Amino acid sequence: MLNADTTDPAVLRELIAGELAAARERTGRLTDCVEDDELVAQHSPLMSPLVWDLAHIGNQEELWLLRNVGGRDPMHPEIDPLYDAFEHPRSERPSLPLLPPKEARGYAHDVRGRVLDLLAASPLEGSPLLDAGFAFGMIVQHEQQHDETMLITHQLRKGPAALTAPAPPDHADRLPAEVLVPAGPFTMGTDTEPWALDNERPAHRVELPAYWLDTAPVSNAAYQVFIADGGYDDPRWWTERGWAHRQQAGLAAPLFWSLDGGQWMRRRFGTLEPVPPREPVLHVSWYEADAYARWAGRRLPTEAEWEKAARHDPATGRSRRFPWGDESPTPAHANLGQQHLQPAPVGSYPAGQSPYGVRQLIGDVWEWTSSDFHGYPGFRVWPYKEYSEVFFGPEYKVLRGGSFAVAPVACRGTFRNWDYPVRRQIFSGFRTARDAGEEA
Ligand code: AVJ
Ligand code: FE
To answer: What are the residue boundaries of the Sulfatase-modifying factor enzyme-like domain, all occurrences included (predicted)?
Structure first.
């Protein structure tokens, strides 16, 4: 994977080609495992038909790499509006005259062939879009992000399992429940990560008071205590909006959970199974995460608290790319890349822990933070305002750290995701925090 020292264009070209191939391999796995009727069907009004994602991936790649970088003419200008995410909301997409599966695959394949020719001839420097292969990196991350979106569609899909994967390794340790992060400044965001997206920039100093942070994400077992204690029925734990939503949506447990006798069950990619007590809780909304934290006498961490715990190295005062250091993720560090279709038990991944001893910040489950999605001080749109800026504001909450569904190339200590506080079809969990106050 790319880092700031990768400057040799031949090395960079090979790396980009590898990342493009890896993304397409994943896209293939997600779309070759079901019949055409399932590719064109809408499995949930929250999601596009899989065949839309497929052609949209090709269309964005054509737009940014062939047209903007390569200066080529549009291949099929008439289809552009169909695949513009801002022209048609997801709920409308099944009624559009979309490319059928064979044509969608063919289009993405044609684009890719031309992109590989372009890459072979590109100096990968000389303009902001080309420097360090940024536009290629952005497109690789875009495809991988849609691969996560498509995995969410698979989770929402009814019917028997289409995807399988081995369980993650179970190396969970018994650890202290929380760690203390002492007061002090740290560097949030980045100026040096070559493929960082606009909302991760610029690097800036943030001063934080001391706080305690959960060593690992909140487990299903812990969450079940909240349920059993009547947490869903007690408005004291919920914000006003959260309570209104809980009432109106009839929330009583995480999405995909059901009670069978006294046993909580969950549906996971087409299989009904007992809820595993030691796994991080998954498929909860921000409102549920926030209510749990309040019930536990705690709160969600701010985005800055999450990032300091994940990146700050107290020995050097520097912020690093990942909790374990600057090296790219390996399977020993984190549960990423859809290698396993579920999170690992809480307390896993000793090699991935941060200097403060915090585990599973990267991978496993996206973690809700208390923060609204805003640009950092000095934010500049790059290269288009529809990636981040149009979403800035109080309606969206920030999630950090990536899930088992996120590719390493689209995951780092600075990466920011966002969604509405009601959403829970995403691979979302959380951990809690509290002020350290006088004791620190
Ligand atoms: C960053 C995950 C919120 O899926 O809406 C994909 C990523 N942007 N295509 C999304 C994205 C354009 C985005 N998230
Ligand atoms: Fe997209």
So the answer is: 175-434
Q: Whose alpha carbon is nearest atom 2 of ligand 1?
A: 417
Coil, helix or strand at residue 336: coil
Any binding-site annotation on 419? yes
Q: Where among 106, 128, 156 does a domain terminate? A: 156
Out of 122, 156, 190, pick the residue that ends a domain: 156
Dihedral (Cα; 158, 161, 162, 166), 10-degree rounding: 140
C-alpha span between 293 and 297 (Å, rounded): 6
Residue 440's pLDDT band (boundaries 50, 70, 90)? Answer: low
Residue 2 lies in a domain: no
Shared domain for 211 and 91, answered yes or no, is no
Is position 171 annotated in a ligand binding site? no
Q: Are the C-beta atoms of residues 337 and 427 closer than 8 Å to each other?
A: no
> Would residue 178 count as lying in a domain?
yes
- The Cα–Cα gap between 272 and 276 comes to 12
- Specify the pTM: 0.98
| Statement: residue 7 has pLDDT above 90 | no
Q: Where are the beta strands (DSSP E) in 341-420?
A: 366-373, 393-400, 416-419
Domain of residue 116: give its range.
Answer: 9-156
Both 439 and 379 in one domain: the answer is yes
Q: Which residues line ligand 1 (CB under 6 A)?
A: 142, 145, 149, 387, 417-418
Residues 407 and 433 in one domain: yes
Note whether 342 and 214 are same-domain residues. yes
Residue 298 C-alpha to ligand 2 middle, in angstroms?
Answer: 36
What is the distance in A from the centroid of ligand 2 to the CA of 323? Answer: 28
- Separation of 435 CA from ligand 1 center, angstroms? 32
48 assigned binding-site residue: no
Q: Give 12-30 pLDDT, tens digit per residue.
A: 999 999 999 999 999 999 9
User: Using CA atoms in the order 376, 379, 382, 387, what is the torsion angle rounded to 10 degrees?
Assistant: 40
In a domain, 52, yes or no: yes
